[in-house]
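To the team - 3-hydroxy-3-methylglutaryl-coenzyme A complex, inputs and output below.
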Amino acid sequence: MGERVEIFEVGPRDGLQNEKRPIPVSEKVALVDCLSRAGFSRIECASFVSPKWVPQMAGSAEVLAGITRAPGVRYAALTPNMRGFQDAVAAKADEVAVFAAASEGFSKANINATIEESIARFAPIMAAAREIGMPVRGYISCVTDCPYDGPTPPEKVAGVAETLFGMGCYEISLGDTIGQGTPESISAMLRAVIERVPAERLAGHYHDTAGRALANIDASLALGLRVFDAAVGGLGGCPYAPGAAGNVATERVAAHLAASGYQTGLDLSVIEAAAEMARAMRLGEGV
Ligand code: HMG
Ligand code: MG
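Output:
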């Protein structure tokens, strides 16, 4: 039997957050419910950010209230500050994620804070999460390239990763936010990060803007990563990263991993159905 690799589904959050059409809560709930039957352990489906910054995520509490929770699945939410964390707890998210950047330009554009300020904002979230036993994941954006600052030095990513891990994040997801990473730049970044955070606590979060996400996943597998974020139907982008295409599509990653001999434990026919639903949502055809 092949070695296990986990796909962390982020379509209902990272995917949908960038869609221009206001998507009804009922459609988001239908997508999550479909994904819940596919065999994921973790599905990110909510984001408790300012609705002025990301209007699409405004109904996140209703989404968490409306879904049918499958046993063994953790439903995750983004939380940029204490208010977001409290809202996520009230909405019964199973885990939360703080999100930082490895470049100052993106940090400012995305969360209106320097990297240092953002880390300071996360400290009370980490303390409150520890008290109630809530797992916290840590994202780092722009791990190889930033739309504002250009190439990102690997040491910068390693420093932010070490800080988030040291604060208690159980896993660090490394975001190629604008999909400009190459197997070479991803590998150089990972080598620097792995010196500070073990590979088994890292995840690759690759956008497919330049069509290199699968090659970047292969480079990451070679360095020991076994968790990858993906969005069903290749939904997504980031509202504060101009030109960012969707996350790498879950169905492509699942097929690629299976062809490479890895086990994902996913039901590919359910994923195909969810991908179809995602495409219809994008086109405004309803689901
Ligand atoms: P700010 O404007 O600096 O802060 O935003 P503020 O405290 O002045 O708040 C502005 C308004 O938002 C206020 O309302 C607050 O009450 C409200 P007003 O007084 O103007 O009516 N507010 C909130 N409302 C709901 N929930 C909250 C919340 N906090 C404040 N939690 C802030 C700072 C962080 C809030 C803002 O910049 C923000 O929400 N940014 C989020 C941007 C975002 O969600 N980006 C996409 C997610 S990151 C991503 O996609 C990358 C990733 O996928 C990895 C990768 O690909 O790289 C993770
Ligand atoms: Mg992303």
